[in-house]
Write a structure and sequence with these properties.
The protein has 334 residues and is an alpha/beta fold. It is built from eleven helices and twelve strands. Helix 5 runs parallel beside helix 6. The termini are close together.
């Protein structure tokens, strides 16, 4: 039985009353504990949405196990990212941080050379390549987990893949000229993210009629575009894009209704770590948002996320070990 089947067998997600609906019509959710023997509920839900996390994903020769929730460690080699900008700017510091995240249990590392925080200034192709490629080249022989490159530029994609990256994580969902063709030709896994607007202006005034269904429909269209261009469907991961052109209310509705994205049939990645929504809810600065980030990661996994993209790897790995133990993932059948 898959991890998601076990989750649904133990926890049935039931919409709250209409009075508790969030903006855009998306319902909030209660988690109702079911007695022993409710395992069939989860199996029926799984069959209804047609979704199973794959057992592994081939990232240019390195395997990413998706049979249980995994952790993607964030490595920003930038001077201006919202959380750790400047902390790991430089090859030596980046390598030390990367090796530490792997030691802490990261299943994959995501390396980015351009900040996509609200208001961030654009970076040239040359500068982005100069930031990420030396790190990927030096890191490849030192770790065994896959490396993802966080970029929207086809030139950076090609340079990073040639340097040893095995996955593309694109906040623009391959909409930049040449990005789709590059990803198809590369034959590596790709994460398609939803974003309303552009990083510099995306938080100015985001508007949705129904955020969950609009995000889902956007991702479905991008999946169709990619498959029609020749990409294998089993290489596609989707990311709803928390904080990318979304208000707090949108983000909460999206997290509550995350399970609806399972109908897309692709593994779900979420990035909630240390984000402003956590800060707003907890009234904590960026460096003090661990507890809120862990709560959000667990909620996302309970709703079907297969990968959580985080800054605090060790704590998140521990939290997901507890989740897996509760739902029996990786334990023998009773």
């Amino acid at each position: 039985m898959s991890f998601l089947s076990r989750v649904n067998a133990l926890v049935f997600i039931q919409p709250l009353s209409n009075a508790c609906r969030l903006e855009g019509g998306a319902p909030g959710y209660d988690l109702l504990r079911h007695p022993p023997g409710a395992r069939g509920v989860g199996e029926r839900v799984n069959r209804a949405v047609g979704y199973e996390c794959q057992h592994d994903l081939d990232c240019a020769g390195r395997s990413l196990d998706l049979s249980r929730p995994g952790v993607m460690g964030v490595l920003n080699v930038t001077p201006d990212s919202f959380s750790d900008g400047g902390d790991f700017f430089g090859v030596d510091r980046a390598l030390r941080r990367a090796e530490r995240m792997v030691e802490e249990g990261a299943d994959i590392l995501d390396i980015g050379g351009e900040s996509t925080r609200p208001g961030a200034a654009p970076v040239s192709v040359r500068e982005e390549i100069e930031r990420v490629v030396p790190v990927i080249e030096a890191l490849g022989p030192r770790i065994s987990v896959p490396i993802s490159v966080d970029t929207s530029k086809p030139e950076v994609m090609r340079a990073a893949l040639n340097a040893g990256a095995g996955m593309i994580n694109d906040v623009r969902a391959l909409r930049e000229p040449g990005a789709l063709e590059t990803a198809v030709e590369a034959r590596v896994p790709v994460c398609l993210m939803h974003m309303q607007g552009e990083p510099r202006t995306m938080q100015a005034a985001p508007v949705y009629r129904a955020v969950v269904s609009e995000v889902r429909d956007f991702l479905r269209r991008r999946i169709e575009v990619c498959v029609n261009a020749g990409m294998a469907p089993d290489r596609i991961i989707v990311d709803p894009g928390f904080g990318f052109g979304k208000t707090l209310t949108h983000n909460l509705a999206l997290l509550a209704g995350l399970g609806e994205l399972c109908s897309l049939g692709s593994p779900i990645l979420v990035g909630l770590s240390r984000k402003s929504m956590i800060g707003t809810l907890t009234d904590r600065p960026v460096g003090e948002r661990l507890a809120g980030s862990l709560a959000a990661a667990v909620l996302a996994v309970e709703r079907g996320a297969c990968l959580v993209r985080v800054h605090d790897v060790a704590a998140t790995v521990d939290a997901l070990r507890v989740v897996r133990a509760v739902y029996g993932c990786g334990l023998p059948e009773p």
